[in-house]
Amino acid sequence: MALKTLKEGSKLIFSQETKALRRFGVIVVVCVLFIVLVVFTVSHYTYDTSATRYFQQQSTDSLTEVSDQLVSGLADSLDAKRGILTLAAYSLNEGDFDKDGHYDDIAKSLTDANSTLGNQFDHLEALYSDGHILTSTGNEFDMSSDELIQTFLADPTPPELSVGKVAAEPKSGQRVFFVVPYPYANNDDIVGLIGSFPLSEFSKLLETNIFGAINNYVVLSRSDGAIVADSDAEQSMKRPVFEVFASFMDTEMLTEVSQDFAVGNSRTLDVAGPSTEFLLYYAPIYSGQAVDGNPYAASNLRLMVMVRADVVRQNIQSLFDESRTLLYAILALFGVALAGFVLVSIASLGRSSRLSSTDELTGLTNRKRFEKDARLLLHHNWRYAVVSMDIRHFHLLNDALGHRVADEVLAQVAHILEAAINKDTELVCRDHADLFLLLLDNTHDDIFARVKMIQTALKNCRYPGNSKFAVTWGIYKMDADGNVGIHVAIDDAIEVQGRAGKEEGDANIVFFDRKLKDKHAREGQLERRALAALENNEFVAYYQLKRGMATDEWVGAEALVRWISPEEGMISPGAFIPPFERSGFITEVDLCVFRHVCDDLQALYDAGEKMVPASVNLSKRHFVSDTFLDRYESILSSYTFPHELIEIEITESVALENDDMMHACIDFVHRMGCLCALDDFGSGDATFNMIKEFDFDIIKLDRSFFMGSNGFDDVARLIVESLIDLAHKLNKKVVAEGIEDEDQVNFLREAGCDVVQGFYFARPLPLEDTLKLLNE
Description:
Elements: H1 2-91, H2 103-116, E1 123-128, E2 132-135, E3 140-142, H3 147-154, E4 163-169, E5 173-181, E6 190-198, H4 199-203, E7 216-222, E8 227-230, H5 241-245, H6 251-263, E9 267-272, E10 277-284, E11 301-308, H7 309-325, H8 327-332, H9 334-356, H10 367-380, E12 384-391, H11 394-401, H12 403-420, E13 427-432, E14 435-441, H13 447-460, E15 471-477, H14 486-499, E16 509-511, H15 514-535, E17 539-548, E18 554-565, E19 569-571, H16 573-583, H17 586-607, E20 614-618, H18 629-636, E21 646-651, H19 652-657, H20 659-671, E22 675-681, H21 688-693, E23 698-701, H22 714-729, E24 733-737, H23 742-751, E25 755-757, H24 767-774
Helix pairs in contact: 1-7, 1-9, 1-10, 11-12, 15-16, 17-18
């Protein structure tokens, strides 16, 4: 039934398109005949004048059209460069660029950041507030006299594209640079990040083969005419463009052009140069008036394209002359020509229609045709699933193997996807880049199993260049909500596919779920509010007391973060900690909790109140830098309470990843005078050897020992007993966390466990309630 429906629908679509083509063909024929008659009548009298106007207009229109595309492409390229540089700035930690930092350390941080992003820039440089810069190679020089740098230092906040050119260096020649604000800057610190590369490399962005590469010249300049780069790095224009224009423009035209450059107008001019006539096109990289809300208002970059006029007009002239030569023959054979023209027009439009529906690279249909055919299928049966598939980090594959090999990979992927579907009842298309869409029949098949099968076929295939890659999938089941259109379903499938590989478990196949969408929206809302909440002191420390087994007294407490919102009240940690972990903002929250704990301990110490050690957690995200503990030491140094009252907890997963860094971190904690605890021991791949290898003071047994799938059975008890015995022989204390019943407490007391933490004894409480419980 589905096959019959699709075939009948295809016939209907073809019939409608054929009728439309015929109607259009008739209109075209009538218009052509009218034009021919008019041209024949007036050609002897007005040919020269009309031809000149026609050539000029067509030439300027042609140049304007292709140049507008060049402007758009260049804008995207510049945006991409600035976006990469911004990512580099955010990948650096605040501690990397403090005012007391050593140049060698800063240069290494710059080099590492550039390497992480695929060495998109030849150099990264740190810009100081006085205009000096430090390069990733360790060199320092003064750029305070550069106009762009002066403008940036005066106001680095507007999100405009900042591109400039520095003077020739002894070895590397002239260089083009991008500059973005450094997100952790302060008045005495580094305020910006500069990415630069040779002018000759930047000039490649301006190369274009429109009208033949040797016949055109492309220039990127500022609004004052100063040249940033051009398409011919070897024969670059040395003077500002207005000085060059002055040799072949009168004063009035030169004034208009300079005003256009200043305000950002675009124009195409026919100009008689010193030796030949040429067409001149110029436009701002970003258009728009300088008004609030426009992120690219008053852009200072202009693109100029110069092309010899005779090159642009050559093809137009040829066509025009050929039309006049054939004019009498066309009129004499009017009947035959008309019939032939109708047939050719319909065939040509039919081919154009097919081409407009086909992806040239892969041969699959494009998204426009995919949506059109999908609507026809869904009109008769809603039991389908829209599937979005994307190749992860395809740009890295593109960079490593080149565009040609990457295109071959895409074509092979398309072939596999096409072979995996039922062509009579299912659809596949290439949306754009490395994103593919499928419409799979969900009447009987298990969609998850179908997708896994296709994924296996993709994985087992041998690709050009021996390339390896992973794919992510987003699935929207249409039968879940029959009133949703195909466009919305595609968008939702793409959205959840974008989350694949980022959720817990690193799953690469994600089904659309309204709750999941609401969860992501909620996380996004919390991330946007996070900085303001931090500034408003909405993150506070709650304390969960720990019980000593030998003395049956309170012997410590763990500080846990809580978000108290003035509008919502208590926000669950499970709602904001996972997105903060992914974004890295959790490191700021950890520091905030650490300050709260220090404040509370100092207040108790000054008042002579009863005190117990307090432990604080370090997120895994801290360990991207080996100097992050400097900030903790700086905070702790201003407090006078005994520092051994602070315990720093490090999770087992961090300890397993970098032995050298972990040893250095533990030593640093001990030099601060604090204790160091191994948290969540047993939650992952921990071994007994880890207890011996690292100089932890305290071992915290993960709650999974006591709440496993088989409960706290004999095997778990034997393991816990062995761990406690081993830790004691190595002079380490043992804390059992997540304890909730009396049987577990009695076992741990008999096994010699030092400290127990869990709901059985106390829940996390505000400081005031914790103190009441502590003093009972």
